[in-house]
């Protein structure tokens, strides 16, 4: 392996697998400090020509700056596929390529006789990484082109389009949102939890849409959130014994939380008349819908001193009248 100065005009450019090799920041850096890392090239049958293996962005920047020659690391000629292997391994570990570019390189190798094990062995990529990129080969090429053009993540897009429980129109709606960057890869984590819920597939289109909308509204999401969303929406659509049991348990949690958060002196002692009216409206509405009588004698028993508790009972009974 030698290092020598080579004419830029003598370099043979093969498929770069890039959307755009131009990099203004890199060009500015080279203009200030000159080229710091030589290009990697291979010899060809023509002693005056060399295959450019690695350094396409540097090459473009050098041409734009008017350079005629540059330092290159020269290796023995291999073949097109092996040069792609070198580039994939080198550039992947230096984070120089996007997911879309890596996918194109892996697809090229697969079409040229390589399998997952061989690509992993010769590039030091993990098999899981390779299979992840292979999974997105099934996505419509026009969708991927638009995603890459808009700068949205391929991994999130692949995971989203792999969901099989979603209504087709709902999936298209949220796919458009993803392509428009209205939702991001981290939202897909929430969407997956909701869409993979055992009851999600039983929901109609509008109910699925409501579930996904609620999911992406939350920045932190878990399977518990997914359970609550789907069971809540399902129970509104139709009676389901399992969902009813689940939501009753959730109601008990809400009641416990309500008591923890609101049945204390700093909150109750400072309620305005308007706030008391709203509280009264909620309680009487609940009593009306459940056909339960209102008995203020036990409200609230433990959280207030007896004089204040008596005062609250008088106030609330007054509002009832």
In words, what does this structure look like?
This protein is α/β, with parallel strands linked by helices. The chain has four domains: 1-77, Conserved hypothetical protein from pyrococcus furiosus pfu- 392566-001, ParB domain, CATH 3.90.1530.10; 81-138, Arc Repressor Mutant, subunit A (Orthogonal Bundle), CATH 1.10.10; 140-255; 263-320, no CATH class. It is built from 16 helices and five strands. The protein has helices at residues 24-33, 56-64, 80-93, 99-111, 116-123, 127-135, 141-150, 154-161, 168-179, 185-195, 205-217, 223-237, 241-262, 265-268, 273-290, 306-320; strands at residues 2-7, 11-12, 39-43, 50-54, 69-75. A five-stranded mixed sheet has the order 1-5-3-4-2, with helices on both faces. The protein is elongated, with a radius of gyration of 32 Å. The termini are far apart.
Using brief descriptors, characterize the structure shown.
five-stranded mixed sheet, 16 helices, elongated, 321 residues, Arc Repressor Mutant, subunit A, Conserved hypothetical protein from pyrococcus furiosus pfu- 392566-001, ParB domain, 4 domains, 5 strands, 60% helix, alpha/beta
Give me a quick take on this structure:
With 321 residues, this protein is an alpha/beta fold. The protein contains 16 helices and five strands.
Largest sheet: 5 strands, mixed
Helix content: 55-70%
Structure classification: alpha/beta
Approximate strand percentage: 5-15%
Taken in chain order, the helices and strands follow as EEHEEHEHHHHHHHHHHHHHH
In round numbers, the mean pLDDT is 85
Spans of at least 5 consecutive residues with low confidence: none
Number of strands: 5
Number of domains: 4
> If you compute it from the alpha carbons, what radius of gyration comes out, rounded to the nearest whole angstrom?
32 Å
The strand order across the widest sheet is 1-5-3-4-2
Q: How far from one another are the termini?
A: 96 Å
Shape summary: elongated
Number of helical stretches of at least 4 residues: 16
């Amino acid at each position: 392996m030698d290092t020598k100065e080579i004419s830029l005009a003598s370099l043979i450019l093969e498929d770069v697998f890039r959307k755009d090799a131009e990099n203004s920041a890199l060009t500015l850096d080279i203009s200030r400090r000159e080229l710091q890392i030589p290009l990697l090239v291979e010899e060809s049958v023509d002693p005056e020509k060399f295959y450019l293996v690695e350094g396409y962005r540097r090459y473009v920047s050098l041409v734009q700056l008017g350079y005629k020659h540059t330092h290159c690391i020269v290796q023995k000629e291999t073949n097109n596929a092996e040069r792609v292997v070198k580039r994939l391994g080198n550039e992947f570990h230096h984070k120089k390529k996007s997911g879309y570019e890596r996918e194109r390189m892996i697809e090229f190798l697969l079409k040229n006789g390589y399998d997952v094990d061989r690509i992993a062995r010769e590039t030091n990529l993990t098999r899981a990484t390779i299979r992840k990129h292979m999974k997105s080969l099934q996505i419509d090429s026009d969708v991927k082109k638009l995603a890459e053009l808009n700068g949205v993540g391929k991994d999130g897009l692949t995971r989203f389009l792999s969901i099989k429980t979603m209504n087709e129109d709902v999936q298209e709606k949220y796919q458009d949102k993803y392509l428009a960057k209205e939702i991001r890869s981290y939202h897909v984590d929430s969407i997956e939890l909701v869409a993979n819920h055992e009851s999600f597939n039983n929901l109609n289109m509008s109910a699925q849409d409501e579930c996904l909308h609620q999911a992406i509204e939350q920045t932190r999401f878990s399977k518990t959130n997914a359970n609550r969303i789907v069971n809540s929406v399902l129970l509104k659509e139709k009676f389901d014994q399992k969902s009813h049991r689940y939501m009753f348990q959730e109601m008990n949690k809400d009641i416990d939380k309500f008591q923890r958060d609101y049945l204390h002196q700093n909150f109750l002692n400072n309620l305005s008349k308007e706030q008391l009216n709203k509280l009264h409206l909620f309680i009487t509405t609940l009593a009306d819908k459940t056909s339960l009588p209102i008995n203020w004698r036990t409200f609230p028993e433990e959280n207030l001193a007896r004089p204040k508790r008596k005062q609250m009972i008088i106030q609330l009974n007054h509002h009832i009248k």
